[in-house]
Specification:
The chain has one domain. It is mainly alpha-helical and about 110 residues long. It is built from three helices and no strands. The protein is rod-shaped.
Length: about 110
């Protein structure tokens, strides 16, 4: 053991014999403790940034999936609106009450009473 050999070489001239070395409490210098704490904090910040990036990536992917689902639904709806279906909806609206018909290309003015 290097510690025992070093102590033995220092004290053997004074007649002290080293039989055993037992390290009870090792307290590193304050600078090492601070460096360790800084390194730990840096690792925590890196992990937090990684987690934030992963969460943002998942949220972005969810938005893409929702947008694609909405686009697909719009395409299905658009494909189902044939001239016959639109005319049927128009006739249903006429049966159900007050309907304002605005010809294409005109600018409607509706006055409230």
């Amino acid at each position: 053991m290097a510690i025992r050999d070093e102590l033995d070489s220092r004290w053997s001239k004074q007649g002290v014999l080293i039989d055993e070395v037992a390290l009870q409490q090792i307290d590193p210098p304050k600078s090492i403790k601070e460096a360790y704490a800084t390194a730990q904090n840096s690792q925590i910040e890196v992990q937090k940034a990684t987690n934030d990036l992963n969460a943002a990536t998942v949220a972005a992917k969810q938005l893409v999936v929702k947008a694609q689902a909405q686009a697909d639904a719009n395409n299905i709806l658009s494909a189902s609106l044939s001239p016959q279906v639109l005319e049927s909806k128009y006739l249903d609206a006429l049966k159900n009450g007050t309907v304002y018909v605005v010809p294409a290309g005109s600018t409607p003015f509706i006055t409230a009473r």
